[in-house]
Specification:
Layout lengths: L2 H17 L16 H7 L8 H9 L8 H17 L7 H10 L7 H20 L7 H12 L3 H9 L3 H14 L9 E2 L5 E2 L1 H11 L12 H12 L1
Helix pairs in contact: 1-4, 1-6, 3-4, 4-5, 5-7, 6-7, 10-11
């Protein structure tokens, strides 16, 4: 296992330990979608919750639960680990939106710190190894929406001058330049984060020399950056 993958594994294990003090509680909610057996399972040890039930809860709208923030907080380690390893089968953007709705940044400091460590370790691991179970674009979107900031992650990418990081950059660029999506690119399941201005400026200035793509030189993109910046 590479050093960065080991750091990610360590961060995920630390996440489990940080949330271990979260006590079980009687989970109640929409009995039309979740039967008594499901609610009983959600009220018990998180490790015993079936994967399909975990995925359903990870994606479910908050209004389905009488205490959504507490339920999502208690299940956060399993949800995040499954998302990181590509085993959750739920849109990564939706996980970020649900974490924000659960108010994860207001949780006790040990919990929020452990999650921040996972975001940082996941990003480093993604920039140093490919292919991974989750695309670089989806990882960037999740951690950006979850933390409410894109620039710190772009700065890490700028500082990571490796062949893998450059290959990830080329793939990311090819993705967002399809039909010039980059000029109106929003992140998050509900398009919460407008990333166009930051991404365009970064791509056209700070990392332009690291990717061979003539589309970046088209006047249309330069005009778009000026218009977005002016707006």
């Amino acid at each position: 296992m590479s050093r960065h993958r080991q750091q990610l594994a360590t961060a995920l294990d630390a996440l489990d330990r940080a949330f271990a003090s979260e006590e079980p509680f009687p989970v109640t909610g929409c009995t039309h979608c979740y039967g008594g057996q499901d609610l009983a399972a959600l009220s018990g040890p998180p490790d015993l919750i079936a994967d399909d039930l975990l995925s359903a809860v990870a994606a479910e709208v908050p209004s389905h639960w009488d205490d959504f923030p507490r339920l999502y907080r208690r299940l956060a380690p399993r949800i995040v680990r499954s998302a990181v390893t590509g085993r959750l089968h739920v849109d990564e953007n939706l996980i970020a939106s649900r974490l924000v709705a659960a108010g994860w940044t207001t949780w006790d400091a040990p919990l929020t710190s452990a999650l921040h460590e996972v975001w940082a370790a996941w990003w480093q691991a993604a920039l140093h190894a490919r292919p991974g179970p989750v695309s670089i674009r989806e990882i960037l979107s999740l951690i950006t929406v979850a933390t409410g900031a894109l620039r710190p992650w772009l700065d890490v990418w700028t500082d990571t001058r490796t062949e893998t990081a450059d290959a990830q950059l080329a793939e990311f660029l090819d993705d967002v330049l399809v039909e010039y999506e980059i000029t109106e690119l929003r992140m998050g399941f509900y398009d919460e984060y407008d990333a166009s201005a930051e991404l365009l400026s970064w791509l056209l200035t700070e990392v332009r020399d690291r990717v061979d793509d003539a589309r970046l030189d088209e006047p249309y993109l330069l005009d778009a950056m000026r218009e977005i910046g002016a707006g």
